Amino acid sequence: MSALILISVLGVVVLYLGLLGNKRLLAPVGILGLIGALVLFYTGYHVEMPLFANMVRFDGFSIAFNSAMIVITVLLFVFGVDYYALMKEHVAEHYALMLFSLTGAFLLTAYTNLLVLFLGIEILSIPLYILAGGKKRSYRSGEASFKYFLLGSFATAFFLMGIALIYGVTASFDLGKVREYAELHAGQHSILFLLGSFFVAVGLSFKVAAAPFHFWGPDVYEGAPTLVTAFMATVVKTAAFAAFYRFVSMTGMPEALSRTLLVMTLVTLFIGNVVALRQSNFKRLMAYSSIAHTGFLLMALLSTSGLTAQMLFYYTFTYALATVGLFIVLTLAKRAANGNENIQIFRGLFRARPWLAIVTMLLLLSLAGIPLTAGFIAKYQVFLLAIQGGFLKTTAFAVVMALIGIYYYVLVIREAFTPAEEGIAIAVTPANWLVISLCGVAVVALGIWPAWLL
Amino acid sequence: MQFLFYLFAAISVISAVFVVSAKSPINSVIALIVCFLSIAGHYILLNAQFLAMVHIIVYTGAIMVLFLFVIMLLNLNKSAEPVKTLATRIAAVIAGGVFLLTLLAAVRHGLDITPARDFDGGVGLVRSVGLSLFNEFLLPFEVSSILFLSAMVGALMLAKKEPAASAGTSPAAPAEKRVA
């Protein structure tokens, strides 16, 4: 709880620092505050009690996810120093909005009350609608912001309707009470309860970009500033999946809901992996890759066992590490190519910056799920879990989709290792180099010693 | 009371239909205001005075005025409805029909709606709303301040006039002074 307060106050402090007009102060202060929050979480690690009339509970699950999100945000802030170096206005607002968004993410991992779930989703989203339009002179950025805002509002409306329906049946927002009700009426749920949980699932699926609610994904990922895209693909997805897991495990997953989720998983896997084959813009490619990973994560949600939480944590964290690294590499390559985002800008990367190319390869291989990287362990665990849960055909389908998915990752790797006609000049600041290397090394280390996190 | 309920219900439904069917956006907005007022009437019938007042002040007052401003500023008062292609219309009809079928199938055996809690006449009074807001729902109440703060920051960030591209090289502070 104290970490939540610290982060929200930190956001305000960063806003005030923006008044001083000294941009260089912003990221260090933000990072210090985030590390402080991490420390606060760990000093309170074993204090697990419901707070504020059972609104939130910062249990082990929530603290693990929150720490992962803090680590990712710190990496993004380090990258931000360089990313925002050229930007004159509103840098403080960007950092502050990301911090506010993070407080929403904390609530999403810790909620025990549907009302807090709703507030968490909104606090997470509203700063993102704004951040997506952060490049005010770019039409694409404006388009991304507007699309995300409109579709997000629709999703929120469904979501709120779902919460209202559940409240109507159970007379409580409290997840414990909802669970009691669900267990009492197992097998013969009232239609209102089913519809309610379905609508809540729709709202959450929108946030994780699961098909058929994924249409905003590629456009928003492409239009938003790269740093914001990276934030969306990592922190937001992690938080939304943590919220999804808490909801699904708390309502005990009525059968009708699990059937819906199964269909959504299949469609998401198909779209994420097959449509991605036709993409040549790297950001859109990453968007489809993110949709594909949503499919695998949904599969983990389907088979609710005690291990699902651990699995989700490992999967989202390693996915986030790889994604952050790749988006930084993209930004560097994009600068060298005058703002071009086609995957061909990676051509000649190995000749120009061998280490960078190798790390890029590792990160992409991890996303593809090649053995010895963390991505492989993550996918392997999901498949194992799904088979244990009795989803044999789904798993077979997912394996085929994962194999198809490898193709487009390898396509990018091939570009990176093809020599370019003319050499490219990629400038890397030490901080960026450190973050990228850290992501690359971590992805391999976690792939070899997964027990560190699992 | 029963008569009032049916009166308000009829007004809400008719005005809501008019919101969608009206050609001119201005008429649409006026109909929406009528709809909101009748819904506020429902709240008062349920003894939820606080909700009724907030509903009138926020929705009918603030948001509708904003709507009107936007419509007038954008000069949308003539019916500038984009023409939809035949394919879109057919798709919309099919989608709507499928949705209707699904709903009908779902409620075929009747909707069993038994209130989980009996009606409590005092629940909507200002006193009980305030008490629950500051006792049970203190955390959501406080946390929503972050939501509004970020929305305000965002509105300022997106709406603030940027210095022209040529003046972009100078730091922000002198530009602000010039405006002052």
Write a concise synopsis of the structure shown.
The complex is a heterodimer of chains A (about 450) and B (about 180). Chain A is mainly alpha-helical and about 450 residues long.
What do these coordinates show?
Chain A is an all-alpha fold and 454 residues long. In chain A, 76% of the residues lie in helices and 1% in strands. In chain A, strands 1-2 form a two-stranded antiparallel ribbon. In chain A, 59% of the residues are buried. Among the domains of chain B are: 1-79, Four Helix Bundle (Hemerythrin (Met), subunit A), CATH 1.20.120; 125-161. Chain B is mostly helical. Classes of the chains: A mainly alpha (454), B mainly alpha (180).
The helix tally of chain A amounts to 18
Residue share in helix of chain B:
over 70%
Q: How would you spell out the order of helices and strands of chain B?
A: HHHHHHH
> Which structural class do you get from the secondary structure elements of chain B?
mainly alpha
Largest sheet of chain B: none
How far the N terminus sits from the C terminus of chain A, by CA atoms, comes to 25 Å
Q: How large, in whole angstroms, is the Cα Rg of chain B?
A: 24 Å
Strand-pairing-aware structural class of chain A = mainly alpha
Envelope shape of chain A: globular
Q: Give the CATH architecture of one domain in chain B.
A: Up-down Bundle
Secondary-structure element pattern of chain A, one letter each: HHEEHHHHHHHHHHHHHHHH
Fraction in beta strands of chain B: under 5%
**CATH structural class of one domain in chain B:** Mainly Alpha
The major β-sheet of chain A equals: 2 strands, antiparallel
The number of distinct structural domains of chain A comes to 2
Helix content of chain A: over 70%
Q: Which fold name corresponds to the CATH topology of one domain in chain B?
A: Four Helix Bundle (Hemerythrin (Met), subunit A)
Poorly predicted segments of chain B: 166-180
Essential attributes:
heterodimer; A: 454 residues; mainly alpha; 2 domains; two-stranded antiparallel sheet; 18 helices; 2 strands; B: 180 residues; Four Helix Bundle (Hemerythrin (Met), subunit A); 70% helix; extended; disordered C terminus
